[in-house]
Design goal:
The protein has 245 residues and is an alpha+beta fold. It contains 4 helices and 8 strands; from the N terminus they run αββββββββααα. The protein has 2 domains: 126 residues, no CATH class; 105 residues, Sandwich (Immunoglobulin-like), CATH 2.60.40.10.
Length: 245
C-alpha cells in the first residue's frame, strides 16, 4: 500500500508540475474585468467575460452584461469542449461607480439542446472613473473571516486549474491535428471524406494524445480535481505518519 501511495503521489505531482510548465499566460485572475481601467468618463471601454466550457461537447454560449439600470448587451460565441473563450462587450466608462454583472444566460450544443451546467453568473466588476476594480465571483460558505482567508487562495487555485485545462486542451487539439484526427473523424474514417488522412508515423503522438486528453478532463472537472487533491493530501499525511511512527 505504501508503494502504491508513493506511485500515486509521484504521478499526481508529475501532472501538476508538468502542467504548470504548460500553463498559458493569457488566462486572467478573474472571470470578469474591463479595459482600460483608467479611461475617462464617456470614453470607450471593453467589458470582458471569460467562459470556460468544462463539458464533453462544444457549446454555443450567450453572455449577458448588465447593471442595476438594465442590460448593456449580449454576446454569443462557440466555446469548444474543455476550453475557454473571452466574450467582449463595448461600453462607455460611467462617471460614477457602477457594478456590471456578466452571466451565461444561454448554452446549447450542436443539436440546440440546452446545457444547464454552463448557465449562471460569471462574476461582477465595479466600473467607474477613479474606481478601483473590485471583482467578485460569488460567496464562499462560512464566516466572513474564513471567506477572507480562503477566498484569495481558492481564486489562485481555480486560476491554476483553468490554466492547466486550457493548456492541455490545446495540446490535445494540436496532437489531433498532427495525427489528422478531427472531432468528426476517427482512424477508421481515413478516406473519402475530404479530410486529411490519419497519420500513423509517430506512435508517440498517441501517447501524448491520451495523456493530454486525460489531463484536460482532470483539470476541466472541478469535482475530480479537488477530489484528487484531497486524496493526495490524505496519502501524504498517511505517509508522514508512517515515517514518524
Amino acid at each position: 500500500m505504501k508503494k502504491f501511495s508513493l506511485i500515486f503521489i509521484a504521478l499526481f505531482s508529475f501532472v501538476i508540475f508538468h502542467g504548470h510548465a504548460l500553463a498559458v499566460d493569457t488566462i486572467p485572475n478573474t472571470s470578469v474585468w474591463f479595459t482600460p481601467s483608467d479611461a475617462a468618463s464617456g470614453a470607450p471601454i471593453t467589458l470582458n467575460a471569460l467562459v470556460y466550457n468544462n463539458q464533453t461537447q462544444d457549446a454555443t454560449v450567450t453572455v449577458q452584461f448588465k447593471t442595476d439600470a438594465g442590460v448593456i448587451g449580449t454576446q454569443s460565441a462557440l466555446v469548444a469542449s474543455q476550453s475557454a473563450k473571452t466574450l467582449v462587450q463595448k461600453w462607455l466608462m460611467p462617471a460614477k461607480a457602477t457594478v456590471v454583472t456578466a452571466s451565461v444566460t444561454g448554452a446549447v450544443d450542436k443539436n440546440k439542446k440546452s446545457i444547464p451546467a454552463l448557465l449562471g453568473t460569471l462574476g461582477t466588476v465595479s466600473v467607474g472613473v477613479g474606481v478601483t476594480p473590485v471583482i467578485t465571483t460569488g460567496s464562499f460558505p462560512g464566516s466572513s473571516t474564513l471567506t477572507a482567508w480562503l477566498g484569495p487562495l481558492l481564486s489562485k487555485i481555480e486560476t491554476f486549474r483553468l490554466n492547466q485545462a486550457v493548456a492541455y486542451a490545446a495540446l490535445r487539439d494540436q496532437t489531433k491535428l498532427a495525427l489528422g484526427i478531427t472531432p468528426s473523424k476517427t482512424p477508421a474514417q481515413n478516406t473519402g471524406d475530404g479530410l486529411p488522412p490519419v497519420k500513423f508515423d509517430n506512435p508517440l503522438n498517441y501517447i501524448v494524445l491520451i495523456y493530454a486528453t486525460a489531463a484536460a478532463s482532470f483539470f476541466g472537472s472541478a469535482i475530480i480535481f479537488y477530489i484528487g487533491i484531497i486524496l493526495v493530501l490524505l496519502l501524504l499525511i498517511r505517509f508522514i505518519v508512517n515515517l514518524i511512527f
